[in-house]
């Protein structure tokens, strides 16, 4: 058994002991159910651990992660997570959190084939196509990359608000805010990108659903 593998099993025992030392009912209480106020949609990147960077305890955040924090409207995995979070858990907030240095976004800026993932990266390329005039006008490559990361996270906020799930929740008067964030790998800080959509009236008419 590798050292790392053995270490994580030991870590788990230690974590349980520490949690129980602080609160003997910690796991017994968690086992009763969950009512997290937040759904987190983030990147699979190992450097962006959802709970840790926002100081959320177990039970406080429902998490969905994929490469480049994408909201692909035919992705049954994302739709199932979103539906459960919004309609059963009744989360109050959804955060789409992109991050600087995202490998998926970087790949979408280039043309190198990587494998099957090329077909996932295509969704990010669609975002590039939507904003290519602006992005191509940014001469500095790092700045263009950072801007693309931000634009991609914002676009996923719009894509969330276009889903039937979110539009129906708003229609029913449910309290639900969607936020776009970007995380700095080299600073640890998150930045709120300031996209605030709280009704389907803010959407392009093409995407507005009537119920
Ligand atoms: Co990433």
From TrEMBL:
UniProt source species: Flavobacterium frigoris (strain PS1)
EC number: 4.2.1.1
Xref: InterPro entries: Carbonic_anhydrase, Carbonic_anhydrase_CS, Carbonic_anhydrase_sf
Annotated family: Belongs to the beta-class carbonic anhydrase family.
The name this protein goes by in its record: Carbonic anhydrase 2
Catalytic activity field: hydrogencarbonate + H(+) = CO2 + H2O
Cofactor section: Zn(2+)
Protein's UniProt keywords contain Cell wall biogenesis/degradation: no
Binding site for Zn(2+): 43, 45, 99, 102
């Amino acid at each position: 058994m590798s050292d790392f593998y053995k270490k994580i099993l030991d870590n788990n025992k230690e974590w349980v002991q520490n949690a129980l030392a602080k609160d003997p009912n910690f796991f017994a209480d968690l086992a009763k159910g969950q009512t997290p106020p937040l759904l987190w949609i983030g990147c699979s990147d190992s450097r962006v651990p959802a709970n840790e960077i926002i100081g959320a305890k177990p039970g406080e955040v429902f998490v969905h992660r994929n490469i480049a924090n994408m909201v692909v409207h035919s992705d049954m995995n994302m739709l199932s997570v979103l539906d459960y979070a919004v309609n059963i858990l009744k989360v109050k907030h959804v955060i789409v959190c992109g991050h600087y240095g995202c490998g998926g976004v970087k790949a979408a800026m280039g043309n190198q084939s990587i494998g099957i993932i090329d077909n996932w990266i295509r969704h990010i390329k669609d975002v590039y196509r939507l904003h290519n005039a602006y992005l191509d006008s940014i001469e500095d490559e790092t700045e263009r990359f950072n801007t693309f990361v931000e634009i991609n996270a914002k676009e996923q906020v719009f894509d969330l608000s276009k889903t039937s799930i979110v539009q129906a929740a708003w229609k029913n008067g449910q309290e639900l805010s969607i936020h776009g964030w970007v995380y700095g790998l080299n600073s640890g800080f998150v930045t709120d990108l300031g996209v605030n959509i709280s009704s389907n009236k803010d959407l392009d008419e093409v995407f507005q659903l009537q119920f």
